[in-house]
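User: Study the shape:
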Amino acid sequence: MIFAGALANSLAIIIGGALGMIFTFIPEHIKDAIMKIQGLFIITMGIQMVVGATDILTTLISLIIGVVIGEVVKLEELLNRFGHLMEVRLGDKHGGNISQGLISGMLIFIVGAMGIVGGLDAGLQGSNDVLYTKATMDFFIALVMTTAYGRGVILSSIPTFFYIAAIIISARQIANFIPADVLDTMVDQVSATGGVILLAIGLNMLNVTHMRVGNMIPAIFIGMFIVWLLSFF
């Protein structure tokens, strides 16, 4: 089944998040400690992704253009509205947690290169091995995140599934007009841009900054477009 990896990834987030909900009632000081550890872990992931960047200038340009687009369309505000709507629908008693969990969870689960690599691998070769590995990692991340953010993290499984499924569907078409070396460069750029976004998420979780990370989402796709554009020169 071509979407088996995407489905497994989404289910892993749901199951991990559901288990994490059990621990939402632990003492606040323990949840705070978990949140800080998680923030440090996400920062570490971000640094690892950025260190591998081969074109940091493209990463910077992608982030600037992406943030401007996000700020103009007020993307994070739109995501927050959706989250708050879910709060009303679900009667979440941890006010604001759903929107925060949705945005943070969605960014963490989709910005990594594994989603793109795994989606391309599934679409071009019918192999879901990379996505199964990603699902295992996301299971534990969702479990820990839900203790702090609540059920919003579980909802992020929906855009994660459609994101990966879209990559799988478009993989065959992409391969028809984008050379393999350009695809590799695109994946590297997504990883670098995603690493910076993860750094922002981690710093927010540690209350060091209060950046609107939701508005950074367009940067991921801007980076891919720039790499594709530069391949003609």
Observations:
- DSSP finds eleven helices and no strands in the chain.
- Residues 3-21+29-231 form one domain.
